[in-house]
Amino acid sequence: MATRPLLRPSRPFLHRLYSTPPSTPPMLLKIRNDLKTALKTSNKSRLLVLRSLLASIIHKSKTASPITTDIQLLSHLRSLTAASRSAAQEFRAANREDLGAKEDAQRKVLEEYVGSVELVDEEDVRRGVKQVLDGIREKGEEVRFGAVVKACLGPGGVFEGRNVERGEVVRVVKEVVDGLG
Fold first, then answer.
1. Half-sphere exposure of 109 (CA within 13 A, CB side)
2. What is the pLDDT of residues 35-79, one digit of tens each?
3. 125: Cβ–Cβ under 8 A, 6 or more apart, which residues?
4. What count of other Cβ atoms lies within 10 Å of the Cβ of residue 151?
5. What gap in Å lies between CA 79 and CA 143, rounded to an integer?
6. How confident is residue 16, by pLDDT bands cut at 50, 70 and 90?
């Protein structure tokens, strides 16, 4: 009968070493802190909203596209706000004003967070797009819509790491490129 050494594990330890830990969006940290505050102050309605919001964020983290930036969190908040608005309208259509009012109160909490994400304003977006266009012209390359968007939003782009909405950048690039042609 073979004996196994007592001090050595049967399998070697497997360690996962990551170069950088996954970053947490600042807005998510704020939501977690607000949850703690709501717990301390016993604010039931706010507590309910924040718990459900964190549950949906955790659920999204287990999908193929987890929330890793404030922009993704903003998009998620907007979709939850739209769903809440729709639910309130349906409650009112079914003559359930009490549930409609409750849904409106929950939506107001979500809208507080939607308004607190600082985004790059349109003027800065225009400046960044102009900077990219100038760089493309200096190289003597043809100005193409896709190349400009990629240079703005792609890795190493002008807006990398900044809170900018992709749709806003695409709209500005389209205006500028169409204005050139």
1. 21
2. 999 999 999 999 999 999 999 999 998 989 888 888 889 999 999
3. 159, 164, 168, 169, 172
4. 20
5. 34
6. low
Q: What are phi and psi of 87, to 5 degrees?
A: -65, -40
Please tell me the distance from the alpha carbon of residue 12 to that of residue 149, in angstroms, as a whole number. Answer: 47
92: which DSSP letter? Answer: H
**Which of 32, 104, 123, 131 lies closest to 73, judged by CA?**
32
Listed in sequence order, the residues at least 6 apart from 76 whose beta carbon sits closer than 8 Å to its beta carbon are 56, 57, 60, 67
Give the position of tokens 């039931």: 44
Confidence of residue 12 (pLDDT cuts 50, 70, 90): low
Alpha-carbon span 99 to 88, nearest angstrom: 7
